[in-house]
Amino acid sequence: MSTREIFDGRLQAALLLVPTVLVSVVFLYYPTARAFRTSFFKAGFGRAEEFVGLENYATLLTNSSYHSSVALSVLFAALVVAGVIVVSLYVTFLIHEVDSGQDWYLISVIWPYALPPAVAALVFLFVLHPTLGVLTGPIEAVGIDLDWFNDGPQAFVVVVLAAIWKQIGYNVIFMIAAMNNVPNALTETAEIDGVGRFRRLVSVYVPIMTPTLFFLVIINTIYAFFGTFAFVDLLTSGGPSNATNILIFDLYREAFSYFNFGVASTKSVVLFLVVAVLMVIQFRLTEEYSYYGA
Amino acid sequence: MTTITLRNLRKEFDDVVAVNGLDLTVRDGEFLVVVGPSGCGKSTTLRLLAGLETATDGEIRMDDRDVTHTEPKDRNVAMVFQNYALYPHMTGRRNITFGMNATDSFADEEIDRRVAEAAETLDITDLLDRKPQAMSGGERQRVALGRAIVRDPDAFLMDEPLSNLDAKLRIQMRAELTRLHAELGTTTVYVTHDQTEAMTLGERVVVMDDGRIQQVDPPQALYDFPTNRFVAEFIGDPAMNMIDVAVEDGVAVHDGFRIPLPSGKTVDGTDGEWLDGTEAEALADPDAGDRPTAVLGIRPEDLYPARDRPDLGETTFDATVEVTEPLGDSLLVHCSVGDATFKMGAEPRSSLEPGGTVSVTYDPARLHLFAPETGEAFYHSATAPAPAGRIDATTND
Amino acid sequence: MTDTIQYAKRRFEAVKRSIVGDRDEESTLLAGREGNAGVHLQLWFLVTLVVFPIFIAVVVSTKQQGIVTSLPDLIPGTYAVENYREAIVDYGFGRFMWNSLLMSVVVVVGKLVISVLAAVAIVYYRVPYKDLVFLFVLFTLLLPVPIRFVPLFQLINDLGWGNSLLAITVPYLASATTVFILRQHFLSIPTSIVETAKLDGVGPVAFTLRVLIPMSRGVLVGVSIIMFVYAWNQYLWPLVIIDSEANQVAQVGLQLLQGDVQGGQLSWSLVMAGSVLTLLPPLALMILFRKPLLETFAIQQK
């Protein structure tokens, strides 16, 4: 029954906790509470707030462009998460299997962790620029008319690709750690049994890495919903004709283009529910599958 | 030079009683070993002594100071941990002096002098400028010992300090600890789960189980006169054979053998009073009807193939050899007789084949009887005088 | 023009061949045979994909005209110094970088200090309700900037902090992630070391400064990098709360450059120069300190 709790001073402990708690309350909890409150008001710059009850929520429920924004975000998140996981898993496996230069390969694929989304967006914008882009020629050569400044679905794909690119590094970091943790004896057993490389990945590594993969699915989902604002803002500004107007960008426009703080707050509350649900799912899954990692 | 007294010491964690009413005196300058299986409360006892845990009830005194609620740093004890607990970022010297600096009560020259002295005693002068990661396990434990002795504490508290060392080094460090204790004479409480370590190191050994002291005695007395089945089976390797018998007219009767019980002694409080088999019979379980029952305890090393020890008398019995395990210096023979099985030490290279029959004899001076229900010993056949110190040891005053 | 397309066609054929070649290698893999050349080839292909856009950015940032549409265009130009100077001095990128640096350093140092304090209290003090406090801090993971930037915008303006360094630092100081990682690390320090300190009568200040921090160097470096990258890469919040160019950070500075290039006032080479500049600090830190960074990530996931 050894213990690390070697100090007793309650006042000291309280003082140590005050800065973190204070900042959390003032800049995290209070604004959240305020968002909840404002979601029941009509509010904006220089206007007196006016209580409107559930009207803002009703608006969102009936607003078809908000519905399409929700659908768009879900599709966006699904594509980004799937893309990131598949590509990262593939790269990780190759690095795990390669016989030399592992460190070099690793650093060459995990660096996008440090890549600022704004930089990623601008570089993508340039490389795929419909008239100037270096890849535009080759792509058009296969018969695709690259016109994503005007073509909604194309713009959507471009944003998805940029978002995937930026997130690969972070995923490989976690996946390589998880894959290296797979007991060597299992790899050797699989090899002795004549299990091919690809099947070893799918039938041995992936099940053992399940907790890490769940963790990454959640992290990537949160990223897709909340971390991709810069991509949309710089690449497409939500267009063309709302084809890339995902929830976070929609919220930004509601607040800072239309200055409807009331409706914007309501949209914040909806996003909060999205995070909450994701976190609960992650928590459940971690509980359920934690025995794998042991 | 300190005497430590524990009175009715009790420690509960939530609803688990870790230490259950301990009464014990650690004598001035004594090397006392506390041994027991994991979870027996031995480490908690040590941590109570150190002040790392607070007693739920009872009292701890060091000489005439009541330290039950004293802060660890004010108890003037030094503790040595199983995993050495050296600060990885500090050199050997810094590790040794860090605690002394923390209390601010030593002058620099005094610290230097003491470090030099401790380093010489432990032969660790070379290690003072190295960090723990550049030391072997044995070297780390020496530095940890250096940290303990440099403060010249009233007592050393050691929590399995040798358990992380390999077998060879452990034996070497055991001798080292004995020498160190002889040199310093500081009261030492040493906790271990290893009964060999307990026997070789302790001037007296406390056997604990289930939060209680089972027996406190010098090592040989513990081995010769265990107070109950737990101690009998815990001390000694391989463990003592336990066979259910009936006691009739001073004879332990089993389907497969009859062993007469010579005059021996009890340990049930009528200490020193000699007893013969007939009286032992009266102490065996009287509720068992015509044939009062008891558990007969004989150590494997006190059983012999009859042909090896003709000197031990004529009482022999036949047993079936089940398995033999050559240990090099002896042959451990697993035997069965009737519904009982037991182990027996035999000469190495004895030609005993599994399935064969062996005639078994025993040392009549090394028989023990235990009550079947309580497990208390009520009879030892040893007729030799008790080792010195034994009689007052059980009452522990 | 036709030449460009011809080239692109050939180039695409080459790319296609290499992809198809890779497929063949993969089928070797499927058969379980050793095919390390194949593994290398696939890795090279993927690494090229991942690095290619930044490679283009670097090349373009050295050219006079930011146009790369043919193979000869991939040869670096000679305008590197000129372009970077222009971006940094004439277009205020030096100022943006400095603001970003200031913001990131303040966030890292502030977060580190208050998170260490909180983690020490949570791990080493025997006080009631501290688990609740920890949960309270952990719960803030549910409250990322995007769900509260609207009310936060109002709050910061109410406080009169608009446009200031305070606005882009203080709201970031409480960090569930940092407290969590530090707590996990502290819990991995053997109890006996902590108890030795207690037996020696080492007080909380000496314990934190002399024992805990020296034993946590790697983790402290690791979380510092994580926090730096996080702070440096912030885009949405500075965009919302900072509206004077003098106080703007590099991320949003890029947006300003982009606006200029859309307006035709600026060549792409300057935008790429700005992008490379913005990428450099976090990238350099990450590569330099990748070992403690990776070790810290390993703690985070537990």
Number of domains of chain A: 2
User: Tally the helices of chain A: what do you get?
Assistant: 13
Can you identify the CATH class of the domain at 109-248 and 284-300 in chain C? Mainly Alpha
Query: Rg of chain A to the nearest angstrom?
Result: 23 Å
Q: Please write the CATH class name of the largest domain in chain A.
A: Mainly Alpha
Structural class of chain C: mainly alpha
- Given the C-alpha coordinates, what overall shape of chain C results? globular
- Shape call of chain A: globular
- State the end-to-end distance of chain A: 22 Å
Oligomer: heterotrimer
CATH T-level fold name of the largest domain in chain A:
MetI-like fold
Q: In a nutshell, what does this entry contain?
A:
The complex is a heterotrimer of chains A (294), B (397) and C (302). Chain A has 294 residues and is mainly alpha-helical.
Key attributes of the depicted protein:
heterotrimer; A: MetI-like fold; 2 domains; 73% helix; 1% strand; C: 302 residues; MetI-like fold; 75% helix; disordered N terminus
In words, what does this structure look like?
The complex is a heterotrimer of chains A (294), B (397) and C (302). With 294 residues, chain A is mostly helical. A two-stranded antiparallel ribbon of chain A has the order 1-2. Chain A is built from 13 helices and 2 strands, in the order αββαααααααααααα. Chain A has 2 domains: 10-51, no CATH class; 61-289, MetI-like (MetI-like fold), CATH 1.10.3720.10. In chain A, α1 (10-38) packs across α13, α3 runs parallel beside α7 and α5 runs parallel beside α11. Chain B has 397 residues and is an alpha+beta fold. Chain B has 2 domains: 4-224, Rossmann fold, CATH 3.40.50; 229-386, OB fold (Dihydrolipoamide Acetyltransferase, E2P) (Beta Barrel). Chain B is 25% helix and 32% strand. In chain B, strands 6-7-8-3-9-10 form a 6-stranded mixed sheet, sandwiched between helices. In chain B, strands 13-12-11-16-22-23 form a 6-stranded antiparallel sheet. The two termini of chain B are 18 Å apart. With 302 residues, chain C is an all-alpha fold. Chain C has a domain at 109-248 and 284-300: MetI-like (MetI-like fold, Orthogonal Bundle). The longest helix of chain C has 32 residues, at 93-124. The termini of chain C are far apart. Classes of the chains: A mainly alpha (294), B alpha+beta (397), C mainly alpha (302). The interface between A and C is large, with 103 and 113 residues.
